[in-house]
Amino acid sequence: MSYIPEFPKRNGVNNFYDTKKLEDKLQTLLQQDICSVSELERWLVEERLLCAEVEELITSHQINFYRDTKNTNKRELYLYYQTDIQPLLTKYNAEFDKKFSNCPFSKLLEDEKYGYMCKVRLEKSKMFNKKNISLTVREQELITKYREILAGITMEWDGETKSYSYIKAMLESPKRQIRERAWRALSESHMLVKPAVDRIMNELVKLRHQMALNAGFSNYRDYVFTLKNREYSIQDCYTFHESVERYAIPVWKRLAKLFETELGIEKYRPWDLSPCTLQKSPFNNLIDLLDGVEKMLGKTDLYFQERFQYIRKQGLIDVEERKNKAPGAVCFTLPKAKNVFIYSNFSPSFNALIHELGHAIHFYKQFANESGVQEQYLREEVAELYSHSLELMLMDKLDIFYPEHNEYKKAQREQMHRAFSMLISPLAGDLFQHWLYTNPYHSPEERDAKYLEISKRFQYSSVDIAGFETQIGASWIESFHYFQYPFYKIEYAISQLGALQLFQIYRENPEKAITLFKEGASMDWNLPIADIYRNTGVNFDFSEQTIKNISEFIINIIEDLN
């Protein structure tokens, strides 16, 4: 059963909203008189409901397209909503921000309930420039083209044509020759599409730089930091990069030595970066995966299990690997229906599935909030806290997939290795983007060279990459975040620090940690990040000492599991 509905057709095209009908609704809301605080609060509810309705339609068509990028009708519908409806909504959202900011009653709203939203809307109103609407439309067209290119990659494998995601799954094979073969095949596929992807990135950097200039900023990095209303500074990010390099990377290298011994190799090569110590697949098919994760959730918390059972029953999930399906994983929100849709096109993996389930549980807790979830105000540093935390809290149930004791211990070790990697690789990606957008006139060759340089300092610091520098320098093209979600990387590392703190509580008192998880996930999005973290029992802290402590915590667990 699939949730994604067939929308009514108009002139032979699925077109739930024509632009005139939508604009009439938006204009009516814009012209509405507001004469008191209570009327402003009612207006905010009406605005949220209308925007939720439109955003759900846009998201539904995005899901349809991602699931089958070669379907011409789905592509045209997706682009229609991206190039006709979304720009109209963007235009009116800017008008709504202006109306709200200029309304005298907005200053009288309760700060605890509306303070963050007031701040965001005032900043967005200042930054809005009509010239950027057309640039945003072009940006979405380029992102769509990138998605189509990656989704269309296929490779020959043992006489059969396989998808990119299928070959990527081979990187976790316990057989080193298979890992190497897969790594080389993926690298070759990168080089084949790289000229086209380079052209896309060249234009994205150029138009994003122009967006920043239009908004009065000198570069896109500074523009995004203000647009995101980040509760930390650009300098804080650089300090974070340096602290991880100082305290986490030495531990990362120690882990490499441990796994080199386990794998029986003299040194890590690029195809050894995943631990790859498990000798068999944890499940035989997709149903086994879903059933196994459901059991893990049931042994953790009944609410977690109930939400997953509901998602499965309603068909709100597609985690099957197949050709012509867009790469990546995401938990889409459907705000009108107060539902989610879990999507991924990695190899069938309990890690990716559990991660997106963490988002789903968070969203369902937010849907139950009286304030109503508004995704544009949900900060990624908060959202990723609960996805990472769920992965860690389910780690002690991996015996469902690995009943043999030694394999169970190996699975836990590999899970901790992945958790640690989320402190390292995302920061390399963040630093890469700082460079991209503060040096907007760089060449593709300079871009690859910078990515290689940063990778050698972070995730590849423990790897012998001799002879593969070109391939690693080009490998940034497989990360859809750089294209679709610029500057969405550091949030993974920040939230992983919080999740590991919660995991420390879980190891001492599982019930307490689960209660804190649910309480934190239910907190009003309007609160400062530090308050939401505090209500989850952890600190919003990426200081040197915290990084040092967490690094030692991880290496101790892994060594204890040996």
UniProtKB/TrEMBL annotation:
Cofactor binding, per record: Binds 1 zinc ion.
Pfam families cross-referenced by the UniProt entry: Peptidase_M3
Domain of life: Bacteria
UniProt entry tagged with the keyword Metal-binding: yes
Ranges where the Peptidase M3A/M3B catalytic domain occurs: 170-515
InterPro entries membership: Pept_M3A_M3B, Pept_M3A_M3B_dom, Pept_M3B_oligopep-rel
Alphabetically ordered keywords of this record: Hydrolase, Metal-binding, Metalloprotease, Protease, Zinc
Cofactor entry: Zn(2+)
Family (UniProt): Belongs to the peptidase M3 family.
Protein name as catalogued: M3 family oligoendopeptidase
Species of provenance: Paenibacillus profundus
